[in-house]
Sequence to fold (252 residues):
Amino acid sequence: MKFGVFDHVDRGTSSLAELYESRLKLAEIYDRSGFYAYHIAEHHATPLGMASSPSVFLAAVAQRTTRLRLGPLVYILSLSHPLRILEEICMLDQMSNGRLEVGVGRGVSPYEVGYFGVDPERSSKIYTEAYQIILQGLQSREVNFEGEVFQLKNVPVAMECVQKPHPRSGTDCPIPTRFRGPRKTISISSAMDRPRRYARSPIAIGRNGSRLSDRAAAPCRYWGWAVIWSSARRPRRRSRSGSAPSAFGTET
Fold:
C-alpha cells in the first residue's frame, strides 16, 4: 500500500502568498516522509481551490522536492487548448525528472466551466477530443486531428517527456452524476490505456464518533471502473486503485 495526498489548496484565513508557501513546505514534508504522490485539484472562481493553474503550482513543488511524485487531479480539458496542456505536461515531467502523474477530466462543476463561456453540455465532446490530441502528441512528433471541436494539421511536437511513452495517467471517475453521464465518459475511457484508477468515498465523523458515509458510493465507483475495463476487452493485468476519503471532525 502506498500513501499520497490529494489537496484542493483551499483558501483559509491567511494571505494567498502565505497559503502557497505553507503548501510548498507541506510538500517538502511529504517528500521527506516517504509519501508516494501529491495531487492537486483545479478549480476556478471559488475559494475551494486556489491552484487554478495546476502547472504553475506543480512547477514550484517539483523544485522543492526530489522523490515525491506529483500531478494534477485533474487538468480540466474543456477549459484549455490541448496543445498547451500537452506542452505543459512535457515541461513538468522534465522539470520533475520524470515524477509527473497526469489526471484529466472535463470539469465537475457546470458553474465553473460556464464562467469561461463553455456550455456544460458540450464539455464532454471537448474533453474527448482534447484527450485524444494530448495522447497523440505524447507519442508522436506531429499531431494531426480532425474533429468537431478541434482541427489540427501537421502540428510539430517540439517537446517530449522523460517517462516513456508518456507519464502515468488517470481520469476522474466516470460514475453517473447530474453532470457526468457514464455513457459519454465510458466511450472515450474504454479506448484509452490508463493504469491508475481513482475513487472517492466521503467520510463524516459526527459528535458521537459515529461514521456517516454513503455506503454505496465506493462500490459504485469501483463498479464503474470494472465496466470500463471489461468493455475495453483488455488482457488482465495489475492495476492500481486509489481511494480518497475525506474526514470531518467537530467539537465534542
Notes: The CA atoms of residues 42 and 194 lie 20 Å apart. Residues 171-232 have pLDDT under 50 and may be disordered. The longest strand covers residues 151-156.
